[in-house]
Amino acid sequence: MTVHLSARGLGCERDDRWLFADLTFSLAAGELCRVEGPNGSGKTTLLRILSGQLGDYSGELHWCGERLDRHAKALRGELLYLGHRAGIKDGLSALENLAWYQALGEYRCDDAEAARWRALERVGLTGFEELPVERLSAGQQRRVALARLHLERRALWILDEPFTAIDAAGVAQLEGWMAEHRDAGGSVLVTSHHPLELDGAMARICLDGRGGHDVIAA
Ligand SMILES: Nc1ncnc2c1ncn2[C@@H]1O[C@H](COP(=O)(O)OP(=O)(O)OP(=O)(O)O)[C@@H](O)[C@H]1O
Fold first, then answer.
1. 42 CA distance to ligand 1 centroid (A)?
2. What is residue 61's three-state secondary structure?
3. Domain ranges in the chain?
4. Locate the ABC transporter domain: which residues (predicted)?
């Protein structure tokens, strides 16, 4: 099985405090992993390091066997990162937001417009495609961000608090998409402050907020 991400001896310090140190784990194709820990324990920082956005860490990180610091571009083409902020532009419509992501060159597909409509249908935004997103509810705005999961296939999803503002049906749906992605050979790293149906099927990286951690297999 292809190992997507592997970390050896990973550490990160903020304000003279280790968020985590000597963290070793791997995430292979077809695996799910939940990163958990109290507020401020370093979950977002870890996900930003693993997605190649932060370079101030110690230890080694590999993407598909290649050092991440030397092959960040290879990872970018295979990664979908959703931050804990929705990352959408208020004045643009849902369709325009997705077009903006496509225009950034992050998404390649034959029929970009059809892909946008299809993605918005999947997240339950039929009828809301052309309104400025500032006129959508918080949960609908989060769904605009989640529509990126359906724009194009990416091997690795890194999702930071993707369930924020999502209703119970939406949580079940998103868990279903994560399971589908895994079954298709993708991998997922996710944070959530709430219990999930998929918990039993996920490995866990538990940060304790004091610099310690546990890595627990699925
Ligand atoms: N750029 C930065 N400079 C200095 N300190 C930072 C920076 N980014 C984060 N921190 C600190 O690192 C710690 C971990 O932050 P992080 O956002 O990773 O935590 P978290 O586990 O995701 O928290 P939450 O559950 O509240 O989202 C916090 O104490 C934060 O203040």
1. 5
2. strand
3. 1-78+157-217, 91-153
4. 5-218
What is this structure's pTM? 0.94
Going from the Cα of 45 to the center of ligand 1, the distance in angstroms, rounded, reads 6
Chain segment 51-102, per-residue pLDDT in tens? 999 999 999 999 988 898 887 777 888 899 999 887 889 999 999 999 998 8
Contacts of residue 41, defined as CB under 8 A and 6 or more positions apart, other chains included, come to 19, 207, 208, 209
At 181-200, the pLDDT tens digits run: 999 999 999 999 889 999 99
Q: How many residues does the chain have?
A: 218
* CATH number assigned to the domain with residue range 1-78+157-217, chosen from the 4 options 3.30.465.10, 1.10.12.10, 3.40.50.300, 3.40.50.150: 3.40.50.300
Closest C-alpha to ligand 1, atom 18: 42
**Distance from the CA of 199 to the center of ligand 1, in angstroms?**
24
Name residues contacting ligand 1 (CB within 6 A). 14-15, 19, 37, 39-45
